Amino acid sequence: MAKKPDTSSRIADNKKAAFNYFFEERFEAGMVLEGWEVKALREGKVQLTDGYVVIRNGELFVIGCQINPLKTASTHVNPDAVRTKKLLLHKEEIRRLIGKVEQKGYTLVPLNLHWKAGKVKCEIALAKGKAEHDKRDTIKDREGKREVERAMKNRHR
């Protein structure tokens, strides 16, 4: 299992994923990117919310991760903001993921993008979708924590 990356090295988070899925396992994968994409990531021009991971021919690809090109992008490059990006993992991990994803209800979801040793890494999770009542429980828990925080804040005044 992958360690949680530094918050200072974070590029983007998929906050919606925690609301829609239960995470079983987390993996850290490398990403195959073009030069203009890396420059755009340094500027924070990325959105992971609609992203998901698919397996094709024994390889992992992230689809729906939108990297918006900079206005200063080179003229000889045709940037495609929603290009399918390949993820890099060890073969044993990919085989294990293929076996799990073929089970009913499991999917692969990108959680965040972060820097590690000068390279862009994508944290993905083997996830199971939440039912509607689970989502309501999540909202109720979140609102309960907010109420406690407000009460504690007002008490200390």
Give short descriptive properties of this protein.
single chain; 157 residues; alpha+beta; Small Protein B, Chain: A; seven-stranded antiparallel beta sheet; 4 helices; globular
Task: State the end-to-end distance.
Answer: 43 Å
Unreliable spans = none
Number of strands: 9
- How helix-rich are the residues, as a percent range? 25-40%
In short:
Residues 133-157 are annotated as: Disordered. This protein is an alpha+beta fold and 157 residues long.
Describe this structure in words.
With 157 residues, the chain is α+β, with helices and mostly antiparallel strands. The chain has a single domain (10-130), classed as Small Protein B, Chain: A. 31% of the residues lie in helices and 35% in strands. The chain has 4 helices and 9 strands, in the order βαβαβββββαββα. The protein has helices at 15-20, 35-42, 91-101, 132-155; strands at residues 10-13, 21-31, 46-47, 52-56, 59-63, 66-67, 85-88, 106-116, 119-129. Strands 1-8-9-2-7-5-4 form a 7-stranded antiparallel sheet. Strands 3-6 form a two-stranded antiparallel ribbon. Strand 8 and strand 9 (119-129) form a beta hairpin. The N and C termini lie far apart (43 Å).
List the helices and strands and how they pair.
Blueprint (H helix, E strand, L loop, with lengths): L9 E4 L1 H6 E11 L3 H8 L3 E2 L4 E5 L2 E5 L2 E2 L17 E4 L2 H11 L4 E11 L2 E11 L2 H24 L2
Antiparallel strand pairs: 1-8, 2-7, 2-9, 3-6, 4-5, 5-7, 8-9
